[in-house]
């Protein structure tokens, strides 16, 4: 088993997909152990550390990478299986921003009312009990919630030598912020440039669907991914697979267009896997599908279309990449 580890220093973090040289090269079949910093770069460490004072725009939402995948070419698909995602600290953080989030005025939703207050919430992370603790800032209410680690941001370099801020989700991946991207899930990304140049970041101890206030329970993560390359198979939008479901994503504004992209991709994917007529697949997805929300606050919004694999006759897409990578991940975990 080929295993490599990488922990970036503060000056080695990336804030774009594309426009940056690779930090290293990996071969398909490699296990990669990564450290990812939280969306504030670790600078918000207490309730008095307001992001507007301790962080500098646009240096938010850092990612670890990019990694060059040997043999990856445009028209291929990169498969990244998340073997494990574990909080690297015993604390995490969330905030409200004056002009960011679903329930405040933004630069594109201009309103005359005052902006929201900038407030920081600190969460206690109990990795043994698998909980995070919420504490109200303006009262004595407190409650434990289950730890459900995920990555909000994963992607490859965009096409045409473009560089995109990590906060923006699109066809290359990026800041999709879907809670579906947890350990045990394989994400499929269409390769746009030689080497793919994938990066990962924005760890969340948990997140509600939509990331309504603009931030999740933001945390640094120790993450393990298994890497595979599917040659000659294109993927138009990021797709996800777990043991029981296939999922398609779409990112755009307005939200209904993100919804349409994700549903269109799932319908056409289901038709290609089963041989169904497209309208038959449309009917099947309409009755059996779910539509989890990714984010409704970033520069593009993200929707997910989700369907049980059992409704499709339990197919193994992408040459059974998820099954193989799941096995590789289990072998890695059993060796530790």
From TrEMBL:
SUPFAM superfamilies: Acetamidase/Formamidase-like
Organism: Sphaerisporangium siamense
Domain of life: Bacteria
Name of the protein this chain belongs to: Acetamidase/formamidase
GO molecular function, one term: hydrolase activity, acting on carbon-nitrogen (but not peptide) bonds, in linear amides
Pfam families: FmdA_AmdA
């Amino acid at each position: 088993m080929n295993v490599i580890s990488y922990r970036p220093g503060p000056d080695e973090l990336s804030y774009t997909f594309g426009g940056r040289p690779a930090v290293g090269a990996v071969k398909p079949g490699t296990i990669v152990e990564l450290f990812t910093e939280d969306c504030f770069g670790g600078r918000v460490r207490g309730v008095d550390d307001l992001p507007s004072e301790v962080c500098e725009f646009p240096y938010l939402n850092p990612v670890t990478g990019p990694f060059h995948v040997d043999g990856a070419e445009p028209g291929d698909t990169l498969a990244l299986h998340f073997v494990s995602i574990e909080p690297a600290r015993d604390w995490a953080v969330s905030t409200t921003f004056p002009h960011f989030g679903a329930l405040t005025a933004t630069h594109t939703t201009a309103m005359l009312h005052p902006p929201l207050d900038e407030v920081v919430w600190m969460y206690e992370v109990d990795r043994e009990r698998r909980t995070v603790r919420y504490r109200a800032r303006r009262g004595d209410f407190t409650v434990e919630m289950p730890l459900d680690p995920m990555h909000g941001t994963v992607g490859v370099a965009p096409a045409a030598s473009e560089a995109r801020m990590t906060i923006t989700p699109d066809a290359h991946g990026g800041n999709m912020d879907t809670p579906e991207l947890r350990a045990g899930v394989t994400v499929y990304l269409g390769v746009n440039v030689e080497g793919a140049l994938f990066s990962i970041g924005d760890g969340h101890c948990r997140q509600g669907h939509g990331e309504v206030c603009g931030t999740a329970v933001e945390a640094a993560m120790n993450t393990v991914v298994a890497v595979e390359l599917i040659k000659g198979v294109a993927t138009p939008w990021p797709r996800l697979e777990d043991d029981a479901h296939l999922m398609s994503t779409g990112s755009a504004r307005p939200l209904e267009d993100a919804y349409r992209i994700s549903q269109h991709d799932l319908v056409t994917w289901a038709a290609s896997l089963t041989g169904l007529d497209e309208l038959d697949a449309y009917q099947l997805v309409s009755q059996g599908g779910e539509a989890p929300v990714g984010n409704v606050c970033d520069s593009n919004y993200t929707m997910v279309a989700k369907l049980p694999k059992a409704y499709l006759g339990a197919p193994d897409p992408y040459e059974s990449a998820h099954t193989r990578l799941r096995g590789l991940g289990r072998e890695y975990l059993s060796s530790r």
